[in-house]
Amino acid sequence: MNPTALIAEDEPLLAQALKAELAAAWPELTVLATAGDGRSAVREALRLLPQVLFFDIRMPGLDGLGAAAELADRWPVDEAPMPQLVFVTAYDEYAARAFETQAIDYVLKPVQPERLRKTVLRLQQALAAQQQAKPAPATADEALERTLAQWRQVLAAAAGNGASAPPATSTAPLKMIAASEAGGSIVRMVPIGEVLYFEAADKYIRVLTAVHEYLIRTPLKQLLAQLDPEIFWQVHRAVVVRSSAIEAVHRDEAGKLHLDLRGRTEKIPVSRLYGHLFRAM
User: Fold this and answer.
1) Looking at residues 61-90, what average pLDDT do you find?
2) What are phi and psi of 234, to 5 degrees?
């Protein structure tokens, strides 16, 4: 069977240009569909189960990073291996070099045939190795974890190199958060030591302590850069928890992980991408 792909690109002309260049560089590849936004890309990917994803990093609504993170959690691994992931980016030469040094597959916009051929060669080699391996059930989990580790690297590198200039010097971790009370106009200064977890929701981030809920407008990516990674762990694309607040980790009948936090009654979902944090499970 011919290899298959899905293109997610919000600019139709650029999507068609990439499709045409792929036809020239990889005639055997069948592009099953193109999607114009992240939500459509997730829906079509889960419907078609392509072997390769070409995702534009910047798309309206759910961007390429968010779409990839959601697919990592929802991909039906019992039906098809997780796909190869390639980011489509308009970032400049500085960011492109950063992707290269971390072995991240990317396609620079406008499409450059020579660079695309290198990506195609990598993809062909990866798919061939995947076909030859055909892991037995006993090693299927190991194969999945290797793929998830690769996706973590891809997503982390892409998120860290989203600007066209060198990254700014990191600042000291937050000690206090100025947050509004849910449904109110009062701003409270919340000590970071009281926060049990953060949850992204629509245009806000919920800030949860043992007894209160607050709201902030800081994007999760920006918030993560201000938190101590030894103290706060990202466990889901939308959730960051205080590691010392984790009381127990549960695995349900479907194999999904959930956390119990001291001081909270709700279950906190753990994405497949971050399951490695709880290896003992």
Assistant:
1) 89
2) -80, 125
Cβ atoms of residues 210 and 263 within 8 Å: yes
Q: Mean per-residue pLDDT for 251-260?
A: 91
- Report d(CA 54, CA 103) in Å as an integer: 16
Burial class (CB in 10 A: 0-12, 13-18, 19+), 239: buried
Three-state helix/strand/coil letters over 29-98: CEEEEEECCHHHHHHHHHHHCCCEEEEECCCCCCCHHHHHHHHHHHCCCCCCCCCEEEEEECCCHHHHHH
Q: Are 6 and 31 in contact (CB under 8 A)?
A: yes
Q: At a CB cut-off of 8 Å and minimum separation 6, what does 28 contact?
A: 2, 3
3-state DSSP: the chain helix, strand, coil percent, rounded to 5? 40, 25, 35
Domains in the chain: ranges and CATH: 4-159 (3.40.50.2300), 176-278 (2.40.50.1020)
> Which helix H or strand E contains 19, and what residues bound it?
helix 12-25
Burial of 208 (0-12, 13-18, 19+ CB in 10 A): buried
CB atoms within 10 A of CB 218: 19
Q: Could you tell me the pLDDT band of residue 160, with boundaries at 50, 70 and 90?
A: low
State the Cα–Cα distance between residues 138 and 5, nearest whole angstrom: 28
pLDDT, tens digit, 9 for 90 and up, residues 104-116: 577 888 888 988 9
Closest CA to 127 of 26, 260, 218: 26
**Cα separations (Å) of 259 from 74, 213, 244?**
18, 18, 12
Closest CA to 212 of 186, 246, 230: 186
Phi and psi (nearest 5°) for 90? -100, 15
